[in-house]
TrEMBL record:
It comes from Jiella flava. Coiled coil: none annotated. This is Amino acid ABC transporter ATP-binding protein. It is found in: Cell membrane. GO terms for cellular component: plasma membrane. The keyword Phosphoprotein does not apply.
């Protein structure tokens, strides 16, 4: 479903991604972890066309993401992205947050978009919040809205960039529960997260990054049970 082949990128002289290769199969959940500044956010953004790459190749469902002819707006709709800070449109109600892109990008009718939005809000347990504005919701609720907003586009994969790290501890689980449910339903997911409980539960694969490199790329089971590279072991010791 997603292929990264020798992806490199620099910011000026700084090599943020060094020859990164990995693959995500359909229905797989891949957890990406690693120290702050290791390039995780940059990597995930290159997959849905938010950060251009300097060399290598990225494919999403057969589309070459960085080919000149690729329609990045359509691609972004297909790969729903959820950010650390929710990134809801503050000036739009929850329901309007969920219908805007459906109408503009997918050309759905108002009624169709609204029905889809209501169904997804129901699914994340927020049916009663539709007329409110983001500021009136808790962080956990806002993040569930952000997930629903990505899902209304019928994505073929979901990309999460530390979706729980801006949340108060008591709200983390309400977001992780939605993510676990999605994983169990067979959604293809790439999740940058340090929630190792989540990783143990649903990760088919764990990618460990350090200083722009993919140091480990192994099954979820292996990551937690077999001997780790020194850098990954050091990282795990700090967060577990
Ligand atoms: P992570 O998500 O693992 O913390 P990032 O991908 O956000 O790492 O960043 C990796 C490195 O690239 C960091 O050192 C960061 O300062 C740098 N970086 C990120 N975005 C930019 C940018 N737009 N311009 C310059 N440097 C950047
Ligand atoms: Mg990051």
């Amino acid at each position: 479903m997603i292929i990264l082949d020798k992806v490199s990128k620099t910011f000026g002289k700084f090599e943020v991604l060094k020859n990164c290769s990995t693959q995500v199969e359909r229905g797989e959940v891949v957890v990406v972890c690693g120290p702050s500044g290791s390039g995780k956010s940059t990597l995930i953004k290159t997959i849905n066309g938010l950060e251009p790459i300097d060399s290598g190749r990225i494919e999403v469902a057969g589309t070459d993401v960085w080919a000149a002819e690729t329609d990045l707006t359509k691609l972004r709709a297909k790969t729903g992205m959820v950010f650390q800070n929710f990134e809801l449109f503050p000036h739009l109600s929850i329901i309007d947050n969920l219908t805007l892109a459906q109408r503009k990008v997918l050309g759905r009718s108002k009624a169709e978009a609204k029905a889809k939005a209501e169904a997804l809000l129901e699914r994340v347990g927020l049916a009663d919040q539709a007329p409110k504005y983001p500021i009136h919701l808790s962080g956990g609720q806002q993040q569930r809205v952000a997930i629903a907003r990505a899902l209304v586009m019928d994505p073929i994969a979901m990309l999460f960039d530390e979706p729980t790290s801006a949340l108060d501890p008591e709200m983390i689980n309400e977001v992780l529960d939605v993510m676990v449910e999605l994983a169990e339903e067979g959604m293809t997911m790439v999740c940058v997260t340090h929630e190792m409980g989540f990783a143990r539960k649903v990760a088919n694969k764990v990618v460990f990054m350090d200083k722009g490199e993919i140091i480990e790329d192994c099954s979820g089971e292996d990551f937690f049970t077999t001997e780790r590279s020194p850098r990954a072991a050091q990282f795990l010791a700090k967060i577990l």
